Amino acid sequence: xxxxxxxxxxxxxxxxxxxxxxxxxxxxxxxxxxxxxxxxxxxxxxxxxxxxxxxxxxxxxxxxxxxxxxxxxxxxxxxxxxxxxxxxxxxxxxxxxxxxxxxxxxxxxxxxxxxxxxxxxxxxxxxxxxxxxxxxxxxxxxxxxxxxxxxxxxxxxxxxxx
Amino acid sequence: xxxxxxxxxxxxxxxxxxxxxxxxxxxxxxxxxxxxxxxxxxxxxxxxxxxxxxxxxxxxxxxxxxxxxxxxxxxxxxxxxxxxxxxxxxxxxxxxxxxxxxxxxxxxxxxxxxxxxxxxxxxxxxxxxxxxxxxxxxxxxxxxxxxxxxxxxxxxxxxxxxx
Lengths: 162, 163
Prior knowledge:
The complex is a heterodimer of chains A (162) and B (163). Chain A has two helices and ten strands; from the N terminus they run ααββββββββββ. Chain A has helices at 3-6, 17-41; strands at 43-55, 58-59, 64-69, 78-84, 90-99, 105-111, 121-127, 134-135, 143-149, 158-160. In chain A, strands 1, 2, 5, 8 and 9 form a five-stranded mixed beta sheet that branches. A five-stranded antiparallel beta sheet of chain A has the order 4-3-6-7-10, with no helix packed on it. In chain A, a hairpin with an 8-residue loop joins strand 3 (64-69) and strand 4 (78-84). Chain B has one domain: Immunoglobulin-like, CATH 2.60.40. Helix content of chain B is 15%, strand content 40%. Chain B contains two helices and ten strands, in the order H-E-E-E-E-E-E-E-E-E-E-H. In chain B, strand 1 and strand 2 form a beta hairpin. Chain B is elongated and about 70 Å long. Chain B starts with a helix and ends with a helix. Chain A binds chain B through residues 54, 57, 114, 125-129, 131, 143-149, 151-157, and chain B through 32, 35, 92, 102-107, 109-110, 121-127, 129-135. Strand 9 of chain A pairs antiparallel with strand 9 (121-127) of chain B, so a sheet runs across the interface.
């Protein structure tokens, strides 16, 4: 037998177990540091809106109002809050959602003021300016739309048939 | 043309002029910028006509120190007038040149076949921070010229050019 035969051949993995463990640990450490930054880029944003709705000179009671976040692209829109106006036509809504980009809060009204026997409802959409969006789960300022007369034909009015 | 045709034509034309009727409308309300009254905001009341007939300026003015206003006017038209209320404002507009322009339509129930409107349309209290649909920008907003008769200038383009 030669010298070579007496020495044991290296059988098994090319990489020694300890090296493999060290590499794994390094990889895990890398993700542990950087993964949270991706998650934190999705930020919680809150908005609130209030106001009073009239139909002519009478309060518009029981009118459906909604607060939505409209998203561009593949992300579906989120309904943040919805309610029916009180007996005096007043409403108060708030909500929050976690988004990557700044939310686009939209206030929507579905009503039958001055709508006679037409099927479906008149639909109004108003955008809330960005200074009313707060970081976190609670809105700091409430956006006051004012006192709106729903007889007004608002720009961009649509009809909602369902 | 025979006399008979002439008589028929004359009667038809008289009939047509009778179909033109004076219609008037009025709008009042209050404008805010956030919680503060929107003072001195340029506002106009127009009759928008479709087709060849140019639009008519029915009234124009500015909101007062409380942000309140009242506009009233009328015109003679064949068809129903489309009363449009326009607001030119700088609420939430920073140092950007020109003004934000918002338009609202007054419902037909507030347009009257009379010299004086029977009811004044109350648009309510609007917060001009609101971003309304189809907002535009107006770079030159005409100033009030008290010595000029506004009715002479019926098209909005003419106003922008001359003032």
